[in-house]
Amino acid sequence: MYNIVFMGTPDFAVECLDKLHKSEHNVVLAVSQMDKPKGRDMKVVYTPVKEYCVNNNIGILQPEKIRNNTEFIEKIKSINPDIIVVVAYGKILPKEILEIPRLGCINVHGSLLPNYRGAAPIQWSIINGDEVTGITTMYMDEGMDTGDMLLKREVKIEPNDTYGTLYEKLKVVGGEVLIKTIDNIENIKPEKQGEEFTVAPMIEKSLGKIDWNKSAIEIHNLVRGLNPMPGCFFNIEDKMYKVWETEVINENSNKEIGTIIKSNSKEGLFIQTGNGVLSVKIIQAPNSKRMNILDYLRGKTIEENIILK
Q1: What is the pTM of this model?
Q2: Is residue 258 within 8 Å of 308, Cβ to Cβ?
Q3: C-alpha to C-alpha distance for 178 and 193, rounded to whole angstroms
């Protein structure tokens, strides 16, 4: 049995924390980022990790910063954990913390490293059209996801997977791989990552603006990778339409790129891309909810032959 300090913030981390809490190991303390206001009324809500801790009688700290935070660092030292587990905590750990646990700091990362180091590995694996991703556990160092790898497990990306569905799969696998890693930590031979790697930078909302010069499959993958957040969109004059589900039609019209080829309540909405036609299946008009495109076009009109820019 190991004494563990757990550091994480979103629900992706909760799955790992739950597996640890229900294992033979002892979660001595959890650390999460600070609670933030959400919703229209901007009410301050607990982070998912804090909510789990409160419901399961696990002590929790939420320091505003951890770098150069002597009080916090001394607190962790006083606990003298065997392992610090970090899952989507949201802050880079300084050397002073990395050196505290005798068996090291272990991170659970949502990709098959060294592919997709960084903040958004799940989204980018879909956006780039990958067929396989997975979970990697690794020792943490001072770099961004550069530590020696411990265990990996592959997860297939299904053709209709979105960021949301793949996130749910990976968080479950993450918890399972974490427990296997900790149970065998003193017998696993770490593997260095090597010099070749890819990165997964933070997703900006602007990435969701559809570039119709790209192929239908590229746009389709972008829609999948940004669903449920932040979403893809196109503009008609000053109105923004969000696109949540699409289908690729492997044929081309004789229309200019970006042209709305068809728009009716019997067939749907079809747009010419740089290569192939994109069929929009789920749309969200301004100040409206998500709707099946056929239902939307029964009550509203999107004109044919408009050229989207």
Answers
A1: 0.95
A2: yes
A3: 19
